[in-house]
Please model this.
Amino acid sequence: MTIDLLLLIAPVAIAAAATNAGSPRDQWPAARALLISFFEWFGELGVFCGRLVKAAFAPPYEFREIIRQMDSIGAKSLPLVALAGAATGVVMSLETRDSLIRFGAKSMLPTVIVFSIIRESGPIITALIVSGRVGAGIGAELGSMKVTEQIDAMEASAVDPYKFLAGTRVLACVAMMPLLTLAANFSGILMGWVANTLAEPISLHLFVNNGFKHVAFSDFLPPTFKTAVFGLIIGVVSCFQGMRTKGGTEGVGRSATSSVVLSSLFVILADVVLVRLILVFYS
Amino acid sequence: MKSPKNAPPVVVKDLHKSFGDQTVLDGIDLTIAKGETLVVLGRSGTGKSVLLKLLVGLEHPDSGSICVEGQEIIDLPLPQLNEIRKKIGFLFQQAALYDSLTVEENVAFPLNRHMNMSEAERKNRAKELLSSVGMEKDLAKLPSEISGGMKKRVGLARALALDPEILLFDEPTAGLDPITAAEIGNLISQLKEERQITSIVVTHDVHGAKSFSDRLALMDKGKILIDGTFGELKKSRNPFVVQFLKNGAGS
Model:
């Protein structure tokens, strides 16, 4: 299991290091710079997480700012997530319909759509959409605050930016991801039914009954709540990349890009580990 | 830990700071008396802004000692350091206003965090502070909607929000036209007269410094080359001091 994890983490770590490495001319210095950059990045991330945890659990608690971030991260991502979920439902319905007809299993279509959306497509599509929208937003916003000394100004006025800026965003990401996943699942299943009905009319009641006939709570709850881990990854990586921005507007652009790239990669790799864990504990 | 009475507000001893191979501060010694305005002059990149950031714990020195209000701040735990920070107002070079908040919200931000006030009291206090810097008409504007000089004024109002005992100014007149720069200089002088605040002003503006400083320190290569009144600096025969004052006053 440890080796599996190392194999999974290695490509992401290299990608993480590559986003920070320069462009040395020779291969050996390039490899050395990449290695140093790799350890530096993880070391700094560890220190950042330590400060974040310390700040998050110390009073006073920033409830008002958490709610503002929940609105910004959750409510404002809802239309995009619902649209992505709907598109996934339609595509899944169109694609699997043909395949199932070929194997004479057309009646299984609602079950296939519901299972694939609630177990995997809904959570991962939501996470990738949120890492794109929210990751870039957090990376750019905190990056811009860093290079214009707004974070320094906050710290100088005795307000901990790890608590006020990073902690609130991370908590909002963790809290909102399962709710956004529910929205993606709902719109995916609904539009899956619409696409299916356009090809061959079926009542929503029957579609839902057939689709959920074999669904247990263990098919629904663990995949939905694993998205809280995705939220944690998106929040931590984006805040970390934003708050270590250097180099003016160019640096802000780099932070926004690396927030999206790294949080998406980590989400996908975390998904592999979490799916494995869910299968171990719930099958 | 209580600060000793009558201790100078800021005492810096043998302060060193490097970034990688680059030595920025190389043994700085400074003592600033209560109510005094010290102007730190020097070429760009001599570590003047770093010195200010060290005084509020935004940077950590390699060695040396920094006592603020009689309390050593290096390695001070964050809660105690934050108590010291509440006594210090900091006007940043580009004002560093929070760009998602309005002018009024920017000034009310430290009040929201640290003062036990009702919303009406906070609003009144913010208005009062903004009016003291001549910005009472632009309360609802965002920082992107006001000029550089206005941003500095709002930054100053925000720095004064917690009634600080020490004010730090990082290039308060940089990038401003001569009239606006003179207005900011007048505000600094006004603060000195009205509130007896201890101030450290980092600037290139020799002409402005002459009007609002009690004492000047000229930095070069991470060290304080000369420290004294404007008259004392003018008497110096050190070629760098002579050239800096001549060119600076000319500009």
